[in-house]
From TrEMBL:
This is FecR protein domain-containing protein. GO terms for molecular function: sigma factor antagonist activity. The keyword Membrane applies. The lineage of its organism: Bacteria, Pseudomonadati, Bacteroidota, Chitinophagia, Chitinophagales. PANTHER family: PERIPLASMIC SIGNAL SENSOR AND SIGMA FACTOR ACTIVATOR FECR-RELATED, PROTEIN FECR. Keywords: Membrane, Transmembrane, Transmembrane helix.
């Protein structure tokens, strides 16, 4: 835009003969001067015109932007809005990345601090899992790129270790000395069980194989108000997992990706899933007892429907698929429960 066209646009504005789009553009330009309204008198026109033109010319030189002709105002304004939006999204992304980066650094600092305090260190710099045995007989399998800090001798009343990365824990039972795993802002507390802890991308995931674990925010790492302290964390059992989202600071519970039969006693004898005209509710009860997961039947009318088939060698989800095929049903994962949905009654 040349100076003559610029003056003509301002004149149209004062005469109230410009379009709504042109009025918006003038208002945006005027904001460059730091004023809050566009109430101009004729005597102010010359001063405002000079100041606006100077501002726009400076901005143009600094950004290497060529001011468009009047006929292209509509398109140029859309491009400008898109550019502003892109810049805002980019800035948000940078802020989010730095936020996650700071949290990752904080997790590393927690482990590093314990090492400087005299804790032993085990790091896995290789590509295969590395298993170590702790003083109490517990074993920890550290995955690639992960570090564990632990004391040579545990305290009398509790056992504490600090993890950066991923590891599988098989903890010896000792009701008088609970076991604590600190990972980022999350604490996993157990008495005797086996479970996975994985931390990456601002998340910490804990999946239970045997036993029960409590997972909650570390009050030494985050600020908790009175309400948060009372409702802090979740308890999960075999074949369940919980994911903690560090930025949002909330827990999401679900079922592990591949549920396995829960070990009972010294021997793990999987139930026989070979059925011949067996009521559906008994089949589902076997699954619940074997995998320790709750299965909810949405249509109670099919609970006594008869099922025939051998599901013994299949995974839990394949077993469910076989059942659904027979009864024209579907299943969904709802948190830590399985919902079996059948539209029709017995086939």
């Amino acid at each position: 835009m040349n100076h003559k066209a610029f003056k003509q646009l301002l004149k149209s504005y004062l005469d109230d003969s410009c379009t709504d789009e042109e009025r918006k553009i003038i208002d945006q330009w005027y904001e460059l001067l730091g004023n809050e309204n566009m109430d101009l008198g004729a005597r102010e026109m010359d001063e405002v015109e000079s100041r606006l033109w100077s501002k726009l010319q400076t901005a143009s030189r600094e950004k290497s932007v060529v001011l468009p002709e009047r006929k292209r105002f509509r398109m140029s304004w859309k491009y400008a809005a898109a550019a502003c939006l892109f810049a805002l999204v980019l800035l948000s992304g940078i802020t989010l990345w730095f936020g996650k980066n700071r949290q990752t650094q904080a997790a590393g600092t927690l482990v590093d601090t314990k090492i400087t305090q005299g804790f032993l260190e085990q790091s896995n710099t290789g590509s295969t899992p590395k298993t170590i045995q702790l003083e109490d007989g517990s074993t920890v399998t550290i995955y690639a790129g992960s570090t564990l800090a632990y004391p040579k001798h545990f305290a009398a009343g509790k056992r504490e270790v600090y993890l950066q990365g991923d590891a599988f824990f098989d903890i010896s039972k000792n009701a008088s000395r609970p076991f604590f795993v600190y990972s980022n802002n999350v604490v996993t507390q157990v008495l005797g069980t086996s479970f996975d802890v994985r931390g990456k991308n601002g998340q910490v995931e804990v999946a239970v194989k045997t036993g029960r674990v409590a997972v909650y925010e570390n009050k030494d790492q985050v600020t908790l108000d009175e309400v948060q302290q009372k409702s802090n964390g979740v308890i999960i059992t075999p074949n369940q997992k919980v994911t903690y989202y560090q930025l949002e600071r909330h827990f999401i519970t679900s079922i592990v990706d591949q549920p396995v039969p829960v070990i009972k006693g010294e021997k793990n004898a999987e139930a026989n899933f070979n059925y011949n005209e067996t009521p559906l509710y008994k089949v589902l009860r076997d699954l619940e007892e074997t995998y320790e997961l709750e299965i909810v039947l949405e249509n109670d009318k099919i609970r006594n429907c008869l099922f025939t088939g051998d599901l013994t060698v299949q995974t839990l989800f394949n077993k469910l698929e076989g059942i659904c095929l027979v009864f024209n049903a579907t299943y969904e994962i709802k948190g830590t429960k399985i919902l079996l949905k059948a539209v029709k009654d017995c086939p």
